[in-house]
Amino acid sequence: MNYLNFQDGSLLVNFKHNKYSRTISLEAKPLPCHDENLACHWVDPSEVLQKIRSASFDNLFIIDGQKLVVVEPAVVELNERGISLRLPETAQEVSYRKVRRHLCEGISAQIMQNSAIFEGTLLDFNALSFRVEVEAVPPQTFQWVDPDLPVNAVFYGAAGAYYSGECRITKQNPGQKLRTYVLEPVRLQRPRFKPKSYRSGRHILAPSPNIFFVHPFTGKQIDLKVVDLSGGGFSVEEDINNSVLLPGMIIDCVEINFANSFTSRCQAQVVYRYALDDDPRTVRCGLTILDMDVQDHVRLLALVYQVDEQHSYLNNKVDMDQLWQFFFETGFIYPKKYSHIKENKEKYRELYEKLYTQHPRIARHFIYQERNVILGHMSTLRFFENSWMIHHHAATKAESNHAGLAVLNLISRFINDSHRLYSMHMNHVFCYFRPDNKFPNKVFGGAARVMRKAKACSLDDMAYLHVQREFSGLQRMSDAWSLTATVRSDLQELESFYEEHSGGLMIEALDLESNMLDGGDLAREYAAIGFRRERHLFSLKMHGNLVAIFMINFSDLGLNMSDLTHCVNVFVLDGEELTKEILSMTLSILFIRFNQEQMPVLIYPKSYAEAQQIPFERTYALWVLSMLYTDEWWEFSERLLRRMRA
Fold first, then answer.
1. Is the preceding peptide bond at 32 cis, omega within 30 degrees of 0?
2. For residues 116, 119, 123 and 124, what is the CA-based torsion angle, rounded to 10 degrees?
3. Looking at the predicted structure, is the pLDDT value of residue 360 above 60?
């Protein structure tokens, strides 16, 4: 009784009608109890005496989940404010439910059937059923609800919807304005995403972490032990009689606690529930991670990746002198590339110090390292709103096969584990590679050739050259030409041209869709951590007809070693009108406007540069992978990695 008072709980006072076989139950709150005397106050004191006028006191019910305690005291006093009782020495405890029901607080409910929507409240639930009370608002009538057909139920609170799903009606009480329904979910497996053939690897950790969360229906804290864990989700076990996790339920904040050493927080959804064959008293529930802070996710992935491969590291602390030595010794920074770097080498050092020690949200690095020696390296960079760039792949010659493949496998796992999180903004991954470079051509070029679906994985060749600003001979363009800020209709025309010419993913990956003209939050995110990220779009037209679009990307020098993040992209729609001289003049005008002496230039399509006999230094292939096709990528890369290891 005192525990009930401490918890501000209530009990049921039951009266039996003197004439009819009917029980009247009134809710009451017990006051502190010192001896056998108990005083209770009515929760709803209105018309109490009138309700029990023709009834006699019977007993008390104390309901605690699965248990019902029946108490038969003697009445000392009964009035409109409460009741005083003398308690007996013993009471009877009855197990009246197999599965405990949990009372809910502040959860609204909707049940829908054949376009009729009834509003109400979720009263209580267990992992197998819900009890809801709904109201019929004229002209609604409960005859609109066919109990033999399923209904769709939605439960929501201040933070939004916590559950929605198809349910069957197993019980209902009569009532014209208010009616209570008991509902059972139709399915106990509720996959959130399209099922994958290649799922994230699950790992059993020792010690295993715990999850803590406030249950969205009850407001009570839940603490469960994690059975296994991956970068995309985890599973836990519950006592079958006290289970509180139901498939489909969304939990806004789950804290994954690793032995009180560090925690990661995420939004999660329960996706399955089943009883264990070897222990029928236990159920296992699987939860998928819907979203997670990117830094928390990095810590989680770094931990689980170490379980599989102890020499593979994600965003680990790096000795910068050793990293630079690695870049030079592997030939990643070759003499010609160094000639572009040497004048700004202090800026490069400063930039990479920030990238590899401060771990900004926009970048990831993957390192294969043994005995304090770096053997393999790869990194990614979020350079467009929803696209991540893969670059800086290098491995030592002695370990190039194993270490190079290890970091490639690590980045594939990172993509598979991360792309479904909204906070990662990963709809595409892309990279630039030289087709004459055997390794990336075999990996990235091979994937596009095997998948043979341009909307899944595409390749587009571009001509790459360095262009100097011309001071002498710079003439004014004729009035037929105009160079203006790009508008939506220009990007729509570029989309049509590219779809006809290639049909791949370049427009989506590089934020060149018409609805992406105004960009997003990426530039602000770069600025917040002290990095530079600017994009400018210009349209070159002749007599009002679009000839080419120029995309100028500005970033910190060295963010990409070939300055593919600090360059001009030229997309030529009319190669006959755009002569080599007009192109050179346009680039010089843009260089003057942005005070640039020289910049790398990427020209698409490459065939335009060849037709105009523009001398270019090399060909870069732009490879883009859609995250809708990660299974196909995994199938290809696993087969390739097995073959290359062999």
1. no
2. 50
3. yes
